[in-house]
Amino acid sequence: MIDxxxxxxANLPVxxxxxxxxxxxNFVGGHNDTASVPVEDLIVAASKVLKREGSxxxxxxxxxxxQGYLKLREFLVKKLGREAGIGCTVDDILITGGSQxxxxxxNSLLLEKGDTIVVEEASYGGFLSRVxxxxxxxxxxxxxxxxxxxxxxxxxxxxxxxxxxxxxxxYTIPTVQNPTxxxxxxxxxxxxxxxxxxxxxPIIEDECYSDLVWDGKRPQAMRGITGDDRVIHIGSFSKSIxxxxxxxYVIAGWPVLSRLLSLKTDxxxxxxxxxxxxxxxxxxxxxxxxxxxxxxxxxxxxxVEAVGANFGTAAEFDYPDGGIFLWMKLPDSVDTAKLFQAAxxxxxxxxxxxxxxxxxxxxxxxxxxxxxxPSEQTIREGVAKLAEICNREFGVPTRIANVGR
Length: 405
What we know:
Layout: E1 25-26, H1 39-53, H2 70-83, E2 93-96, H3 98-110, E3 116-120, H4 125-133, E4 137-141, E5 143-144, E6 147-148, H5 150-162, E7 170-172, H6 186-199, E8 203-206, H7 222-226, E9 231-236, E10 248-251, H8 254-263, H9 271-311, E11 325-329, H10 336-344, E12 348-349, E13 351-352, H11 360-363, E14 366-370, H12 376-394
Parallel strand pairs: 1-12, 3-4, 3-7, 7-8, 8-9
Antiparallel strand pairs: 2-10, 5-6, 9-10, 11-14, 13-14
């Protein structure tokens, strides 16, 4: 036996926990509605495309080159032009292993230890944890019900400039922000672009939830507004089709994409995944997403009702404009990291707000609940159970409703 402990490099993340199945009341992660996965149509798509083009699996890149399967990029050109107002060609698209890989590649391209970025004060936990490993300073930007406060962004950029600091980029999730689910209005997008341009700061636009706006009407993507690399656009199929299908994409000009390709050393994103999703999406994507939105909104309403019935005024939140998460604020006496530990022992899993905040103090009494995967009955039972545990541990809420008993 070899003891690897003294051989490990410094500053590794904490070890992973062994998987023992999901808890009974699983409100964590970016899981989606089980019944909404279009299994039968995916089977048909897989059969058709493999019969037609399966022989191309003999070569890396499916005879489409290293940027990804050509028909998937062609679908994205049409989809993004129609829905996001992005004018691009297949040469502006790089297919990645989910949006996470896109973010990893951009960070590997731009960030060095000691750099500074500006980022929403509540943001994607997977992004925050990865940036911390780079040893990068993060300047938090406040959010309101409509996303980034542009005046606050200007104050932050001016303050950094006065200190001789030029941020490498501004990272934002403008459409169905994670975790707050806000949507940045079009006028703020124009103002943000103009402001960042004046300070010489590029924008990284993460739009992996943009297909899940309840009414299907989203503001034009900032990449569409600029049409150039003032904005690098990142998107995903994980939330619109299925999380386990690790497919995302980066939209940028060749000077950026050529650099990202040199860092993408995985010999290509999953080939069969790309082929099947391209075949499926060409025929079914629009109808599928309409149905998925209806299902998710119904589950959201069940969760909102359950939170109101069990937590009452102790829970503060803005009704999400789309997506799969509810971001809640509990009284300051509640530490959601400790609530996470207590609830986990009784089969209730949640995301503590500190893990989704640049400043852990901002998220101390906040939590994120994913409503997409559990059934409606499980949501009702799980929220009631969570309220019981929170009451026992912190005295919040002060009174427990007798709901569904």
